[in-house]
Amino acid sequence: MRSFATGVCVAATYADRADGRHHDAVTINSLSSVSLDPPLVSVCMRMESLFLADLLVTKKWAVSILPHGAREIARVMAKDRATRTGAIGALPASPGPRTGALVFRSASWMECELRAAFDLGDHTLVVGEVVAADPRRDGPPLLFVDGGYRVPADPGPSPATNDLPDSPWW
């Protein structure tokens, strides 16, 4: 799977406790489209994730799709919860209009409400209905491949299939 390029996102959720709302965010690269009607997306997280535990309680989260210049945000949000919590206040973010989960400055974002969760192996697959989104595109996206963050060399459209050379791989 190291050679499979994925987009890089930050998922955010929160926990309401007696002393107030506590936000958390984590880097993910498992975002996937599930359905267009209704609009559903999925993410996969380790079962022991504290972030996942909060998400399963609130049933709300936001996904900020990171642009090419957000490598440092991706690195920080991939660290332990204490480090992430300390960094959240310093990052440009605001509560999403539909869920209250933080939306970070990003290439685009969506807010989701839990539709289903499935334990599979050592991860939980979470499916959410997209209830709000901003599809803007501010430059090329940040990618993750071969253990590192990358920017596409050619962020333009892919060639049409009929322009592909004859090859047993097509």
TrEMBL record:
<feature type="domain" description="Flavin reductase like">
    <location>
        <begin position="1"/>
        <end position="151"/>
    </location>
</feature>
<dbReference type="InterPro" id="IPR012349">
    <property type="entry name" value="Split_barrel_FMN-bd"/>
</dbReference>
<keyword id="KW-0560">Oxidoreductase</keyword>
<protein>
    <submittedName>
        <fullName>Flavin reductase</fullName>
    </submittedName>
</protein>
<dbReference type="InterPro" id="IPR002563">
    <property type="entry name" value="Flavin_Rdtase-like_dom"/>
</dbReference>
<dbReference type="Pfam" id="PF01613">
    <property type="entry name" value="Flavin_Reduct"/>
</dbReference>
<dbReference type="GO" id="GO:0042602">
    <property type="term" value="F:riboflavin reductase (NADPH) activity"/>
</dbReference>
<comment type="similarity">
    <text>Belongs to the non-flavoprotein flavin reductase family.</text>
</comment>
<dbReference type="GO" id="GO:0010181">
    <property type="term" value="F:FMN binding"/>
</dbReference>
<dbReference type="InterPro" id="IPR050268">
    <property type="entry name" value="NADH-dep_flavin_reductase"/>
</dbReference>
